[in-house]
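Fold tokens
===========
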Amino acid sequence: MAKISGNDIKPGTMIDYEGGLWMAVKTQKVKPGKGGAYNQVELKNVTVGTKLNQRFRSDETVEEIYLEKKDFQFLFANGDMLTFMDMDTYDQIELSMDFVGEDQARFLQDGMKTLVQMYDGKAIGIALPQNVVLEVTEADPVLRGGTAAPSYKGATLANGMKIQVPPFIEAGEKIVVQTEDGTYLRRADKE
């Protein structure tokens, strides 16, 4: 752990503050006409989820926390619990569906590699790959005429998600979907 100045806190910085683990969400440098400059920081408690707005002067120091990032492989879901395996040690951990987030958990596929952020041996965050390949199980028919503007149609994916796709996508095709927001990116490369 290293001490950093209050002015050095940037979005994404993890700090130990008042006995808790906090991540800077937003920062704004403020230089009032009277008094010293400070850094207005919006903090989010990583373990509890509460938010806090705090001012840090340049002469204040805080402990910066470095998280251990490890590769884990998704193995299977059992009810609301998701099982992952450490790719170095082969140890398995279980994370709840709520921890991963229901929207993100939809994208998990057997054998998928994920990045888990660890602090003191405990998982505090997870990152999925940016894109996943999913099969279109159903695609709405194309509506002809009516507009010259590009149009999209509804489609259902193998994981049950409903998204909008271009009119040339048909059932049975594999497409690339962004995990951040669940939007269509492109057709998957043919194998």
In short: The radius of gyration is 22 Å. The chain has two helices and 16 strands. Residues 69 and 129 are 14 Å apart (CA to CA).
